[in-house]
């Protein structure tokens, strides 16, 4: 079993249907099947849904731990998003990674793709580890 498989995900991410496919130190892959409620009036993924996927991927990329007792938590300080294309499939995935980190703050970037590997959006964020997180080597 994957060490992170039993760790609770944020309820908002579960509500949106986000599924963690890969998670290791400073890297995560999250996917989501699009539902009608995720689409805007034009029938394409809503920008807010894509934003939430980017936020989850960038934030969680810095929250990994193989230790089941070390569940790192983070909060978003800043998030910048560039919408670059339209999805051509009903599944999206985001690849997030930590680009730099300090003692309390880390920086992440992520990209969202459709099932055909078309780039849909990219984003960069700044995050702070929460005090409830154990002070593990980051």
TrEMBL record:
<dbReference type="InterPro" id="IPR006683">
    <property type="entry name" value="Thioestr_dom"/>
</dbReference>
<dbReference type="InterPro" id="IPR029069">
    <property type="entry name" value="HotDog_dom_sf"/>
</dbReference>
<feature type="domain" description="Thioesterase">
    <location>
        <begin position="43"/>
        <end position="115"/>
    </location>
</feature>
<keyword id="KW-0378">Hydrolase</keyword>
<protein>
    <submittedName>
        <fullName>PaaI family thioesterase</fullName>
    </submittedName>
</protein>
<dbReference type="GO" id="GO:0016289">
    <property type="term" value="F:acyl-CoA hydrolase activity"/>
</dbReference>
<dbReference type="InterPro" id="IPR003736">
    <property type="entry name" value="PAAI_dom"/>
</dbReference>
<dbReference type="Pfam" id="PF03061">
    <property type="entry name" value="4HBT"/>
</dbReference>
């Amino acid at each position: 079993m994957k060490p992170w498989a039993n760790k609770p995900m944020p309820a908002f991410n579960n509500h949106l249907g986000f599924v963690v496919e890969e998670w290791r130190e400073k890297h995560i892959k999250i996917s989501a099947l699009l539902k009608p409620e995720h689409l805007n009036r034009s029938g394409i993924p809503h920008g807010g849904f894509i934003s939430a996927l980017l936020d989850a991927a960038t934030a969680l990329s810095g929250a990994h731990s193989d230790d089941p007792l070390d569940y790192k938590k983070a909060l978003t300080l800043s998030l910048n998003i560039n919408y670059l294309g339209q999805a051509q499939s009903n599944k999206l995935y985001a690849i997030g990674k930590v680009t730099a980190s300090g003692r309390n703050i880390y920086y992440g970037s992520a990209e969202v793709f459709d099932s055909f590997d078309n780039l849909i959006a990219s984003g960069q964020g700044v995050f702070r580890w929460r005090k409830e997180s154990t002070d593990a080597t980051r």
